[in-house]
Amino acid sequence: MRENQLRSLWRAGHAATCCWLTIPSAFTAELMAHAGFDSLTIDLQHGLIGYETAVSMLQAISTTPVTPLARVPWNEPGIIMKLLDAGAAGIICPMINSRQEAEAFVAACRYPPAGQRSYGPRRAMLYAGADYPEHANAYVLAIAMIETASALAQIDEILDVPGLDAIYVGPADLSLALGVAQRVDQDDPIMVAALDRILQAARRRGIPAGLHTGSAAFAAQMFARGWQLATVQTDAAFLEFGAQTALSQLRGSAAVQRSGPY
Fold first, then answer.
1. Residue 113, in any domain of the structure
2. Cβ burial 141-151 (10 Å sphere, 16+ → b, else e)
3. Residue 213 backbone dihedrals phi, psi, to 5 degrees
4. What is the CATH classification number for the domain harbouring 29?
5. What percent of the chain has pLDDT over 70?
6. Could you read off the pLDDT of 201-217 as tens digits, one per residue?
7. Alpha helices of 142-234 — where are they, by DSSP H?
8. How far, rounded to the nearest angstrom, does the alpha carbon of residue 190 sit from its chain's CA centroid?
9. Does residue 254 register a pLDDT over 50?
10. Which tens digits make up the pLDDT trace of 141-199?
11. What is the pLDDT of residues 20-50, one digit of tens each?
């Protein structure tokens, strides 16, 4: 059985890094996997990625020890089960607002009697091992996104759902829900208090808490505060930033005389 590196890091008390994959490309996924992140999340909610492309990206990531996660478009059992069958080692589910929604999400990630996942782990057995079915319930990570005022108000009830492995904060949506200017690396007192409330509730139960960040510096601050997973940007953001940085340096050179867009 292949190790779920992310689960192992959390069990050892370590924090883990992640990057969001939004570009529909197996080659980009392979590049990011070899960059050395602990985990990568294929974003099927807001990225440009469909199911078939996600499968090829999972195959590319499997050339490394990086833990492959997938964010599904919604809390819908069909797509959750298909991505698990395709070899995702964990699912990040958006907009979990209540205990009932968290229970439904966890059930879709677990085989009976712990849940109601349908059997058919075609690629998962190739990726994780022939004994995947016997260990899948303990291997797969069910990670609920906390990103609404309702979820914040019911954070304790959500965290008490058996089988929920971790939570993940979407700061952009949570900012909007709390009436705060939308941005990722938040220092607004309302958001700081909300994040602290979520983190402390998770820590009381020994459940890892993660969040999206816009910079390595902010991610390091969050690790220091006790967060155990931080996504540092997206593949598209890294590409854009690298291109802009190179062009800025180039155009700042006295040897460059720009005469047109090319």
1. yes
2. bbbbbbbbebb
3. -130, 160
4. 3.20.20.60
5. 97
6. 999 999 999 999 999 99
7. 149-153, 155-159, 171-177, 189-205, 216-225
8. 24
9. yes
10. 999 999 999 999 999 999 999 999 999 999 999 999 999 998 899 999 999 999 999 99
11. 999 999 999 999 999 999 999 999 999 899 9
Is 36 within 8 Å of 56 (Cβ atoms)? no
Place of tokens 């040897």: 255
Structure token digits, residue 213: 């960040």
Residues 6+ apart with CB under 8 A from 110: 116, 117, 136, 137, 140, 142, 163
Please tell me whether the overall predicted TM-score, pTM, comes out greater than 0.90 for this model: yes
Q: Would you say residue 31 lies in a domain? A: yes
Answer whether residue 177 is part of any domain: yes
Per residue in 127-154, pLDDT (tens digit) is: 999 999 999 999 999 999 999 999 999 9
Total tally of structural domains belonging to the chain: 1
Q: If residue 158 lies in a helix (H) or strand (E), which one and from where to where?
A: helix 155-159
List, by residue number, the catalytic residues. 46
Q: Which domain holds residue 99?
A: 5-246
Say how far apart CA 170 and CA 187 lie, in whole Å.
15
Of 67, 131, 139, 145, nearest to 109 by C-alpha is 139
| Residue 24 counted as domain residue | yes
Does an H or E element contain 42, and which?
A: strand 39-43
Scanning the structure block, which residue is given the tokens 């779920």? 4
Distance in angstroms (rounded) separating the CA atoms of residues 57 and 91: 15
Cis before residue 113, ω within 30 degrees of 0?
yes
